[in-house]
Amino acid sequence: MRKLHSYLLSSSLVLVLLVIWEIGAWSYGKSFILPTPSEIAVKLWELREVLIFEHLPATLLIIVIGLAISIIVGFGLAIWMNVSRIAEKAFYPIIISSQTIPIIALAPIFVLWFGYSIWSKVVVTVLITFFPITVSAFDGLRSSDKDLKELMLTMGASKKDLFLKLDVPSAMPSIFSGLKVAVTMSVIGAAIGEWLGAQAGLGYFSRRMMTQFDGAAVFAPIVLLSAVGILLFLLVTVIEKIVLRWRKQV
């Protein structure tokens, strides 16, 4: 009942904001700058085949590849830093420093290096998603209970046992928190890469429509990108509930 009330409250708020947007944009009267939500919905329906079957797959491919690289490298580096103080001191400051560099400033450089191929967009996505995955996994591995670790050691547990039976389960909540952030940020990374140089994709289509002063067509792929981010977030949430169902039993 409480969840239903929360959903109704959030839905009502979204509806109110859309109504305000509709009235404000209609009063402004310049749809090429600020289209109404209804105009965006109509344009999204008109462009559904082009966006869904031509440009959406290109964006999804960038997101999937970028997330896969970030997960593999990020988890690997987090584990390495957890077992090695030297690796932590060497890589942790670099990971933090990487977030102080504006990605939008590096994206054109990646286009110069990799051209308009998929890899220039993948690198941007990796740079954006790598940080939350790595840091959350590292902090999670460090959060295991010290008393339990000492107890397991006195019972003859090996380092492998400590890692698999204590560190990893303790880190899972933090890992999923990082993944929730990463999957939504991956959509932003893919869109930024496509905006600066691509031949297909939702971000590319939105930028192309800007040159035609078609405001509704600029917003339509953005709405679709938002929907992709929400679906990815919900997917991670479902997987989290399945993997961490033991938390409800504790």
End-to-end Cα distance: 24 Å
Shape: globular
Largest sheet: none
The structural domain count equals: 1
Count of DSSP-assigned helices: 10
Strand content: under 5%
CATH class: Mainly Alpha
The tally of strands reads 0
Task: Indicate the radius of gyration in whole angstroms.
Answer: 22 Å
Order of helices and strands: HHHHHHHHHH
Q: Per CATH, which architecture?
A: Orthogonal Bundle
CATH topology value: MetI-like fold
Mean pLDDT: 85
Which superfamily, in CATH terms, is the homologous superfamily? MetI-like
Fraction of residues in helices? over 70%
Pfam family, one: BPD_transp_1
Membrane topology: Multi-pass membrane protein
Protein name: ABC transporter permease
Family: Belongs to the binding-protein-dependent transport system permease family.
Q: Can you characterise this structure?
A:
The protein has 250 residues and is an all-alpha fold. It has one domain (37-248): MetI-like (MetI-like fold). The protein has 10 helices and no strands. It has helices spanning 2-28, 37-46, 48-83, 85-98, 103-114, 118-141, 146-154, 159-196, 202-210, 215-243.
